[in-house]
Amino acid sequence: MQGDGKEKGKPFEKASPKVSDLRIRRRKAMETKAEIIRKQFLKATGLSVEDLKAMDHRSLYRLGLYHLTTTNKAICEALFIPVESGCRRRKELEDAGALMSSLDKGRCPVTGADADFLTTNPGEFAKMRRANQTKLDL
């Protein structure tokens, strides 16, 4: 048939993946990266996933950032903390002087976006201050 846009002998062009398919693949990649971070945390603390789900967000967020220096989104995804709650906990800890944020941005392991790296480990504060001071001296 002519006029319907289909010609004999020409292969059909592959349709581009739907936006929803791309979102599903991105979400699975995020979950995989969050799972890796979760396993690192569980190994460092000796806790189980059930223990994580039983803990309150405030203490879990602080403990997570003590053992892992990472982004807000990454720690929230890995430890089953809603991001909104993580933002509140970050503000509380910053106001109390118990959280250090990197001055330079790094790539978030979960989203791939530029983000601040956070820690509540005082042993890491000195490293972050030196890195931040080096950036300021330039």
What features would you highlight for this structure?
138 residues, mainly alpha, two-stranded antiparallel sheet, 6 helices, 4 strands, 59% helix, 6% strand
Can you give a write-up of this model?
- The protein has helices at residues 19-45, 49-54, 57-67, 72-78, 83-96, 122-137; strands at 100-101, 106-107, 114-115, 118-119.
- It is mainly alpha-helical.
- Strand 2 (106-107) and strand 3 form a beta hairpin.
- Helix 1 (19-45) crosses helix 4, helix 3 (57-67) crosses helix 5 (83-96) and helix 4 crosses helix 5 (83-96).
- The chain is globular.
Strand percentage lies at 5-15%
- Poorly predicted sequence stretches spanning 5 or more consecutive residues: none
Number of helices: 6
Structural class estimated from helices and strands: mainly alpha
The general outline is globular
| Overall helicity | 55-70%
Tell me, rounded to a whole number, the average pLDDT. 83
Largest sheet: 2 strands, antiparallel
Mind telling me the C-alpha Rg? Answer: 22 Å
Order of helices and strands: HHHHHEEEEH
Please tally the β strands and state the result. Answer: 4
Strand order of the largest sheet: 1-4
Distance between the termini: 70 Å
